[in-house]
Amino acid sequence: MRAAVFREAGKRMVVEDVELNAPGAGEVLVRIEAAGVCHSDYHYMTGDISCPMPIVLGHEGSGIVEAVGADSSDRIRVGDRVALLWRPRCGNCLACVTGNPVLCQFGRVLATTGGLLDGTSRLHKGDERIHHFLGVSCFAERVVVSETSVVPVPDGVPPEVAAVAGCAVITGVGAVLNVVTGGSGQPLVVLGSGGVGLSSIMGARLIGANPIIAVDLDPAKLELARHFGATHSVDAREGDAVKRVLDIIPTGAPWVVDAIGAPTTLAEGLAVLAPGGTLIAVGLARGDATVPVPINDLVQKQKRIVGSLYGSSNPLVDLPRIFGLYLAGRLPLDDLIGEHFPLASVNEAYEQLMTGSVGRMILVP
Questions:
Q1: Domain check: are 177 and 291 in the same one?
Q2: Residue 39: enclosing H or E segment and its boundaries?
Q3: What SS3 state is found at 310?
Q4: Rounded alpha-carbon distances, angstroms, from residue 325 to 6, 237, 330, 352
């Protein structure tokens, strides 16, 4: 099959023929219908975050189950349309049984070994081992994944919507639905209007936050943010973004979502927090990135900074809920989808992403 193989940080991916073993026990084979072009992969492409190589990237995808391995449950069957998850759920570790499955112990296994749940790979080229990316690797025609890494997709949900729902949407919408409490009628600020930021804005509209303030450097993205529910937009190119947000809400925001993950945006998010407010950090940065925190401001105003991985979600519960909201017309996810590219143009898609693409671009293997 064809897959985009990444061999060296700072270099381009190469679309080439690789071999994919049949699914083992508790695994499924999925033919990819759509894969999202997510900025998180770019951190690995540049070396900001390390991963074992060679590797097939891509962690936001959807497809059709073509085979099921031995000892798999009846939850997933051949012919099912599924969304892929880059966080597994074993159901047995401390995180899973205490209701925090995005911190499943096997997430670290996937990230560090470049394998599936047993740490081994189903991808190779002759004798050369090729690694899986976060247990998914959907920049390929087909994938073998753990059955814990898929969620069935109902009829009426297009492949590209299913793909982005499994990463950008559940991350952004989930960060609001699962972390924000009592947000109805309260101000909420979203820093960044990419796929995750726009999804956070949709989540803010769902809970009735008001005003909803979007901050970005791109006027086209801010226009899309207003379409998804932002009541105000702040173009950070036009001056002090913190001051301009506080001009709208002088007392500060009780809730801020940082969907970018840069030290500057985290600092800005903390600066616009109201006393007692919470900054929800969603975006990823370089592995060694840090941000200075003014201690007295943190203590005296009782501000909080919390991390939210994968929307602090329970994907087996939250992703079907997202699909239901989409089918009910409450989440306009079709409008989140941007340009489509063939798999052979994966590098061009990432070049366009880094020059300011609007909406979530999709690879169609």
A1: yes
A2: helix 39-46
A3: helix
A4: 36, 34, 5, 30
Which residue is listed with tokens 């189950």? 65
pLDDT-wise least confident of 23-32, 124-133, 204-213, 354-363: 354-363
Q: Is residue 42 part of a domain?
A: yes
pLDDT at residue 331 tops 80: yes
Amino acid at 143: V
Range of the domain at 271: 172-309
Whether pTM > 0.85 for this model: the answer is: yes
User: Rounded to whole angstroms, what are the CA distances from 265 to 159, 242, 261?
Assistant: 33, 10, 7
∠ CA 197-342-150, rounded to 5°: 60
Closest-CA residue to 91 (of 73, 79, 78, 77): 73
**Do residues 75 and 154 lie in contact, with contact meaning Cβ atoms separated by under 8 Å?**
no
Residue 99 shares a structural domain with residue 206:
no
* Spatial CA neighbour of 65 closest among 96, 111, 94, 29: 29
- Mean pLDDT for the stretch of residues 10-19: 96
